[in-house]
Amino acid sequence: MKSLIHIVSCMTLSLLCCNCSSEPDFTLKEGDLLFQDVDCGPFCNAIEAVTQGFDDYNFSHVGLVMKDAQGHLKVMEAVSAGVVLTPIDTFLSRSSDVHNAPKVLVGRVKPDFKDLIPGAIDFIQSKMTAAYDPYFDINNDQYYCSELIHLAFKHANGDMPIFKEYPMTFIAPDTQQTFAIWETYFNDLNYSIPEGQPGLNPGGMSRSPFIDMVYKYGEPTRSTP
């Protein structure tokens, strides 16, 4: 069961002209969002199948760039170990395209909303000991990747969200049947599949009108019709 939770540690289920650059002198900033196409097999495939990402890219994980206690930039992510800070190189090396470049795009909060970043980071700092949310319940005090980022910016914006929640779905679009991997996952948790409950995933978050895509490390996979 622990291995299942580890693989799906970023789960969020249920939207922008691309100014993406791939110039080598790009510098990350605190508050940047790293949208990642993780190759974790059936779990990631199920996540990506139900939500369209920015420019039709597949994203199954998202982290937020912030400073650690020594002032070094790292990536905050909610994974099976809970809410953690991960070295940027470690995060970027998790999955690569055919050219061995990280399958990661960088989203940046638009200038009119950049003042929300300190408040969002303060919120995240208060959750650094929180556990991962294997149930994808947006109302408990556990967190999956996009849920924590969503709630952090919502808190910073006076309880007004900048990322939209959608009804989660665990049903394959082509068969209209629940993905077998989710049947197994929730059966092992002894928990009902939260079909239709509010939530978010990295793909939906990547399409938010409140962020710009500013950099592309590599080429994530794209959805096919």
UniProtKB/TrEMBL annotation:
<dbReference type="InterPro" id="IPR038765">
    <property type="entry name" value="Papain-like_cys_pep_sf"/>
</dbReference>
<dbReference type="InterPro" id="IPR024453">
    <property type="entry name" value="Peptidase_C92"/>
</dbReference>
<dbReference type="Pfam" id="PF05708">
    <property type="entry name" value="Peptidase_C92"/>
</dbReference>
<protein>
    <submittedName>
        <fullName>Uncharacterized protein YycO</fullName>
    </submittedName>
</protein>
